[in-house]
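Sample pair:
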Amino acid sequence: MPELPEVETTRRGIAPHLDGQRLTGAVVRQPRLRYPVTKHLGAVVRGRTVLRTGRRGKYLLLETDGGSLLLHLGMSGSLRVLPARTPPGPHDHLDLLFGSSCLRLRDPRRFGLVLWTTDPVLEHPLLAKLGPEPLSPEFSADYLHHASRHRRTSVKQLIMDSHVVVGVGNIYASEALFRAGILPVRQAGRVSMDRYVRLVEAIQEVLASAIRQGGTTLRDFVREDGNPGYFRNELMVYGRSGDPCPTCGTPVRQRVLGQRSTFYCVRCQH
């Protein structure tokens, strides 16, 4: 599933093409995504000017002079800027039209969404209760330590809870916990303040590095220019079960935690 670095990479890629552009319509080939696409989307967006292409967690926000579009890439989605006449593929479900170009949503598994709202976008029910952005000043060791108190959940599940902090998905949670030397299954409420300092630093370092590399492509994700994300080359433990730990040489282990595959080193993480 595209996580925060992939979504931010997409935002940075499409923003120069969209910001300031006047939308001329939309072509909806498949309205049945995770939620039904807003009815008559072409008529709704026609004539609207995109003021800003933003992001909140894993949601992209196209803010216009008359409302906002919320887009989510789901499990397998991607967005590309293409000439409007480019023939669509079988999984190209929607085009937003501007000038002679379009923003095309490809979503093989159809778990994405495209919704229009005229309410303040950050008050939308999908966004209103999200935690702070992990790269913002609001996300600190003090904040995370306080949020963890009296919690019996694992520390990995804590940092993947979007009500605690947004966008730290499975790949980056495993990588950050490895860099911080914290065992993923450790109870969140028993992690010390000093270790949360290291964990917050590790989360921010991993996410920033992944954004610089254009995200991580394991299967479906491609950037707006069709290229993959290259952070896969820097993964230390994720997807490397049985490989030697890059620090100590102990074989990396894998287990299921919260229905997600988790990778860790029993010697370096405790």
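The helical segments are 4-18, 41-45, 141-148, 155-159, 170-180, 193-212.
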